[in-house]
Structures are given as structure tokens and as C-alpha cells.
Amino acid sequence: METVGELRPEYLKMIANAVISFDRIADVTRAISNIKAHAQIYQAIATGTGIPWDEIGDIHMREGGNNLGEDLIDGTPCDPATFIPDSIQKIHAWFDKTGYQVPAKWDAAERLYLAEKWNGFGPRHHGIHTGYSWATTNFYIKGKYDRNGHWDPNLVDKQVGIASVMLIMREQGIIQF
Asked: Is residue 176 part of a domain?
């Protein structure tokens, strides 16, 4: 089982050397605008879970396109009226299921570890860095699960990667790591 301690040196080296694909900067900026548009909602979830609001927004970007009618956990349809309490309950259930412990300090490695643990470490078993975190950067080219348990080595993850969002949010002074 992968741990943040084992992966920390890799994550820190990668985030320090990550370059966002020039042709995807507008997509990353648009994704950040969508995350910021729901900042109060993500902050309410953060208060109930201990995960930073922007990290919740990053995960929801990947899972549900920051659409409050799509579940934070897996992007399935949900009731926007109960999005906050349902998300808090489901995140705590995920903590229980995975044994995840909320860290005392959220540095870049903790953020990237949560993203990869959330989505799964499967791409590592195929020798690539997950598009979930690294799409739209120099650390990802192709390879993705097209459905649970089925790896396609030629499928390209077209969504914005969480690392790109982190880098621009840090540049804009929204987050620190």
C-alpha cells in the first residue's frame, strides 16, 4: 500500500518541476473559476471534513465538473439541495473505508497524495503518473482507465489535472504549499 511518506519525495520533485501545457492554460484558468464560484460550499464541506476547500473543489472538478447536481464522490447525479451534508457524510465514509487520516498540515505532497488515493493508484501499476493529478502537465501523456478495472494505454485524459490547478492557484495567491 502506498503511503504519503513513501511518495512525498516524488510528489515534491514533480510539483517543483511541473510545467502546465501552454495550450491548456485557459482550461486550467476556467476550472479555477468554477472552483472559486463554489468556494463557500466547498468551505462548508471543508469545515466538516478537515480537507481544504480548494482540494474539495479540485476533486469535485474531476468527479463532477464542479456541477452541484453531480456527486463529489463519483460524479453521479445528486440533489444539489443536500450536496453539503451528503458530501460530508460520504467523505467520512471514504475515510472509514480507506483508513485515510487527515493530516495536520496540508503541503503539496499531502494534496497530491489525497488526489491519487481518491482516484486510485492503478496508473502507477502501468508505469505512468495519473492523469487525475498530472493531466495538462509535462508529467502526463496518455494512459487511463476507461471504466473500472479496464486500462487503456492509449486513452488520453482530457480533463484538467489537479496539479495544474494547484500551481495556478498558488501563483494567484489563493493557496500556499
From this structure: no
User: Which residues, including other chains, have CB under 8 Å from residue 13's CB and lie 6 or more apart?
Assistant: none
> For residue range 40-88, what is the model confidence (pLDDT) as tens digits?
999 999 999 999 999 999 999 999 999 999 999 999 999 999 999 999 9
Q: d(Cα 140, Cα 161) in Å, to the nearest integer?
A: 9
Question: What mean pLDDT value characterizes the chain?
Answer: 97
Candidates 90, 81, 57, 87; CA nearest to 160 is 57
In a domain, 121, yes or no: yes
Which among 77, 71, 64 has a CA at the least distance from the CA of 31?
A: 64
**Cα 86 to chain centroid, rounded:** 19
Domain presence at residue 73:
yes
Name, in order, each residue with C-beta under 8 angstroms of 118's C-beta and a sequence gap of 6 or more.
Answer: 59, 94, 132
Mean local confidence (pLDDT), 96-124? 96
Instruction: Tell me how long the chain is.
Output: 177
- How many structural domains compose the chain? 1
pLDDT band for 128, please (50, 70, 90 cuts). Answer: very high
Domain extent for 155: 4-171
